């Protein structure tokens, strides 16, 4: 159930990324920004399930929670680095 809710919450991140890019990026770089967003979203959609499947194969029932935890740690690390760079 948690994975279902998490998946629903993550679904809106692409829309939020496009909105933020539209607000922060000038017109000359907008195409590159949208391409980068689409690339990252597609890469995550491909690599996430592959990593979760591999981890589940290797670690049985502990694989999916470990991949989810690792993904959360990566997001928190990026957020902390970006937050430190802004101050």
Order of helices and strands: HHHH
Kindly report how far apart the N and C termini lie: 37 Å
Helix content: over 70%
Per DSSP E runs of 2 or more residues, the count of β-strands stands at 0
Which structural class fits the helix and strand makeup? mainly alpha
- Residues in β-strands, percent: under 5%
Q: What gyration radius follows from the Cα positions, in whole Å?
A: 16 Å
Task: Report the biggest beta sheet as strand number plus sense, adding barrel if it closes.
Answer: none
What is the number of helical segments per DSSP (H or I, 4+ residues)? Answer: 4
Total number of distinct structural domains: 1
Low-confidence stretches at least 5 residues in length (pLDDT < 50)? none
Mean pLDDT, all residues: 88
Coarse shape: elongated
Description:
Helix content is 86%, strand content 0%. The mean pLDDT is 88. The chain is elongated, with a radius of gyration of 16 Å. The chain has four helices and no strands. It has 87 residues and is mainly alpha-helical. The protein has one domain. The chain has helices at residues 2-10, 13-24, 30-59, 63-86. Keywords: Membrane, Plasmid, Transmembrane, Transmembrane helix. The chain crosses the membrane at residues 33-56, 63-81.
